[in-house]
Amino acid sequence: QRVLQKCCVQDTGQSGGGGSGSAGGGSVVQNDNNPSAGGGGNVVGSGNQTAPADQSPPPPSQDLTDVRNLVLQNLEAVHSSQQHLLQLWHHKKLKLDQCFQLRLFEQDCEKMFEWICHNRDVFLLNYVEIGHTYQLAKQLQEEHQHFAMSSMNVYVNINRILSVASRLIDGGHYAASHIRSVASRLDRAWKDFAAGLDERTAVLALSVIFHHKAEQYVENVPAWKQASEGGNIPSEIVMLENSIHQHQSLYEAMCQAYTEVYNSYQSLLNGLDVMLQVCHNLPTTVEATEKDAGLINGDSKKYENRPGGNPAADYSEGASHVLAVIHQILNHHRALEQKWHAKKIKLHQRLALRLFQEDVKQVLDWLANHGEVFIRKNTGIGRNLQKARVYQKSHEHFENVAQENDIFVKNIFSMT
């Protein structure tokens, strides 16, 4: 800029200050044969005196024009180089920022993959365990609920990582395809892990219901047995009818309880089947998870040979336990049904006997109080036509009643 300014001053023929050319920047003109003398403020000169005031300035020399053009060219080259360097610097800075973001993303994904792999192995240690009693099943359910809640807290971090991945991809990150692949596998690994959590939650709920209903059934067996074996059978017809009604209600309650236990048993076995299938799908997902970890850290063997449970053996044990419980319930139910049917027969036989006795008593009472009395009292034939017709009509009515009693007695004999 100083050189161009002094060149412009020379072009107009004006002096930058007075004095000789050797005065370090005080004059513009310098001797051509001594360009280095007198300081850096002078560029070109032809003498030590300035031109007269009434004389027109000389035209700029070719050397001065060449110098100015050269300076302008160099200045333009410097400016272009500066812009190019700024572009390179910004590009390098952007790439470094993206690389830093990528490393942070991979580090977060690595932590999540480690958490999923570790907790999957812990999860599989008792994945198909359902408990052998109501209390144990309830305890397992509570422990699993705490574990599931902790896992849901981890999902918040996974969801944040997936959101970061979306922003990086949308922002045109240079490793967008790699980020998309890792994020997709992390999302799939979590979804498969969450599916296992959901299935175990459902199965433990079914186990709690099954054991609760089974234990309730077993607890009611003594009372049902006593009610089915009741020794004192009433003799009154009304009381017998009430007893039969109560006995039928008892059977309906036993059947309802057994049906609930059996339905919960079937639901639990179906849930165990589904959970075992989900468990068999988990290793494939974890292999992909380990592959992701290998892609990130270059160490795909990091998660090999981890300890884990044996879901098939746990399933076999759980299914065998459930079958043993339902067989126990079935044996109780069959024994109760036998006792119930035996008492039912007794009640109905006693009621039939009492009804038979009442019917016989009614017939005998009619014979004693009406039949024989009527025959003994009505021995006349009437002294006139009117009286004879009265006797005839009364006798016909008596015959109708006697015939009805005869049919009734025949029915009694057929029932016996």
TrEMBL record:
Gene3D superfamilies: 1.20.58.60
Family annotation (InterPro entries): RhoGEF_Guanine_NuclExch_SF, Spectrin/alpha-actinin, Spectrin_repeat
Gene Ontology MF term list: guanyl-nucleotide exchange factor activity
One cellular-component annotation, GO: extrinsic component of membrane
Compositional bias per record (Low complexity), positions renumbered to this chain: 45-54
Gene Ontology process terms (BP): axon guidance
UniProt superkingdom: Eukaryota
Pfam families for this protein: Spectrin (PF00435)
Ranges of compositional bias, category Gly residues: 14-27
Keyword Transmembrane helix applies: no
Keywords from the UniProt entry: Guanine-nucleotide releasing factor
Region of interest called Disordered, as start-end residue ranges on this chain: 1-65
Listed name of the protein: Uncharacterized protein
Organism per entry: Acanthoscelides obtectus (Bean weevil)
Organismal lineage: Eukaryota, Metazoa, Ecdysozoa, Arthropoda, Hexapoda
